[in-house]
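Board notes (copied after class):
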Amino acid sequence: MKHRVGRIEQETLREVSDILRKKIRDPRVSEVSVTAVEVTNDLSYATIYYSTLNEDEEAVKDVAAGLEKAKGMIRHELGQRLTIFKVPELIFKRDQSVQYGAKIDELLRGLNKD
């Protein structure tokens, strides 16, 4: 079962990235990149982690709103592209690892100065 979940996560990552690039016309999600997908063991939910190039607070909120609005279309497209019985519910979460890494780099540079 673990192997199947991993395969579905990889396929979902690839397909959602492709759908965002080619099918979604909303300018709010034009600079979104999908970084990871986690699917529950029963395949009922898929958490899609994304990152944006723009770190502005207002832009981040716009991207989240754009993804929420496009969620239904993305799920519909996944249903046509994936060969699974039930398409999981999509949950979009912003990937904070880039900001975390930048903060760690900044702290390390600060240590080197002292």
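Comment from the instructor: Residues 2-113 form a domain with the GMP Synthetase; Chain A, domain 3 fold (CATH 3.30.300.20). The radius of gyration is 16 Å.
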